Amino acid sequence: MRSSFRELEFIPELNIELKISLNSFLSFQLIEYVANPKDTAEYLLKLSEEQPNHPLLFTENWLLLSARQTCEDGERGYRTLWDYLSPTTLAQAAENGVEDPVSDALASFFKDWSQNNLFTVTEKATAEVVDGIAHFFKGFADFNLDEITKLIQEFDLALAKDWKAPQAKTILQQLLNFFTEDDWGFTKLQGESVLQLAFQGQNGQWACYAQAREEKNQFVFYSVCPAGTPEEKRSEIAHFLTRANYGMTIGNFELDFNDGEIRYKTSIDVEGDRLSPALIKRLVYINVAMMDEYLPGIKAVIEQGVSPEAAIRAIEQSDATVPTEENV
Q1: Domain stops at, among 113, 140, 162
Q2: How far apart are CA 53 and CA 42, in angstroms?
């Protein structure tokens, strides 16, 4: 809950000055012991040694008002909601004749916040802000939470009219994130929204391709069979793959009759929805599992002359082994 950065973001090598304030309902515990900043620091250090569990040492009881950094090109930093609502700010507003300092401070904060597109108008965000403000003003007899809530909701409605949601991640960006986090090695094909990957299964190794079809809101994943199909075997492999595809619920085998390439395809259309890591994972791992399961049968038909029927039967019977010319 902060305003935008003034100028650019912080420079890591330079010090950052933090302005903090003790939550108002605990201030009496400090005021009676100290009179100046130096005494305050010494008193808190003493507390940390003698009473480490004292409420004055809990970070949640201290509020960050601002963070600033002085650079050659000027000052960088931001203010938080608590700076707008600090007792000093409210007192100054009251001295300047502002009838409702709290509402005025909130109005200033939300104006700065919205101008920099730093929030999404949601019920959750509103609730968090209201809860935070209520905690900040705990102990104030004249604090009216209903009025504050109403004010925030009015700002939500006004800002929602002009607010533009940030663009969702592209399908390609989501694929890049998934395969990076899932520890896959991959190469992006130049000029295309396609990632090339390799997978090692129990029965062989093969190339995979993850394709992002942005305009159609589709994600397609392919496993390319490492065994090419000779022209004279393509009819038999087509027979085998037709039998394999029957009953498949997610994905299917494909055969290119022109060059004999076999691949397994899984895909999803996410128009009107979003592509989550869980969906990507399901499509990818089901895909490679199917290629790994049927690869011995494909090789048996191509390399060993096994009939499509016998090869499928061996795969789909859990206690069977892939047949050879000798055991068919």
Answers
A1: 162
A2: 17
Q: What is the pTM of this model?
A: 0.49
State the alpha helices, DSSP H only, in the chain.
27-31, 37-50, 81-84, 87-95, 101-115, 123-136, 145-162, 171-181, 234-245, 277-304, 308-316
Q: What is the pLDDT of residue 155?
A: 52
Instruction: State residue 192's pLDDT score.
Output: 92
One domain, residues 109 and 185: no
pLDDT of residue 269: 93
For 226, the domain range is 171-316
Residues 203 and 118 reside in one and the same domain: no
225: CATH: 3.30.1460.70
Q: What is the mean pLDDT of residues 278-294?
A: 95
Contact between residue 78 and residue 99 where contact means Cβ atoms under 8 Å apart: no
Q: How far is CA 184 from CA 178, 212, 277, 287, 311, in A?
A: 9, 17, 14, 15, 31
Do residues 146 and 277 both lie within one domain? no
- The pLDDT of residue 76 is above 70: yes
